[in-house]
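Dear support,

I submitted the protein below through the web form. The confirmation email said the job was done, but the results page showed an empty box. After a refresh the structure appeared. I'm attaching both so you can tell me whether what I see now is the final result or a partial one.
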Amino acid sequence: MKSYDAHTHKIPDNHVGIYQSDGVYTSSLFSVGVHPWQAAVQTLREIIPALQHKNCRALGEVGLDRLKGPSMEIQHAMLLAQLTLANELQKPVIFHLVRAWDEFYSLIKTQQHTPWIIHGFNSPKQFPRLIQTKVFFSLGPASLQNPHMQSILSKIPLNRILFETDVSETDITQVYRDYSQATSTPLEEVNAQIEQNFLAIFGA
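What the results page shows now:
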């Protein structure tokens, strides 16, 4: 069975993945967006052509970051503009979020009209509130290696989970195995559900 990587900075070779593009079209599936760190220097015009390409399956990564980047006002304005675009084009959204959860929950109420994915979910304190929403949790190596995440991994419904490698050198198949071991879920069951989740969000 194929392995699926919902967010990677390397073009996939032996699996299916969503490559984080800088606006260059690729023969593999990709995502494109103005990262919050770049919200003051990039424009929507730079990503719209790529966002409309048939291989672009998501807007991302986009979001809010209180620790790095321009002011929250600038980040928020850019994010709102991109979410409007995602809704018009019916694209799922891959989020980068750092200490901006209250703003994110407010956006869910008014802006979520497509699947939203929390990339590299690694914030167990947010889980009780996030599970009440419709977001998907994308887990990567850091998520599975965080001891504070261990107690909630089994509580996240498998039909709300995606796997990713992000910038890690870890192979995506290792992420599958680590999750399977951490949650005592048979690998075959994990493979089947992640495939279903991935295809439902990003398409074949």
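Response: this is the final, complete result; the empty box was a page-load delay. The beta strands are 4-8, 16-20, 30-32, 56-65, 93-98, 116-118, 136-139, 161-163.
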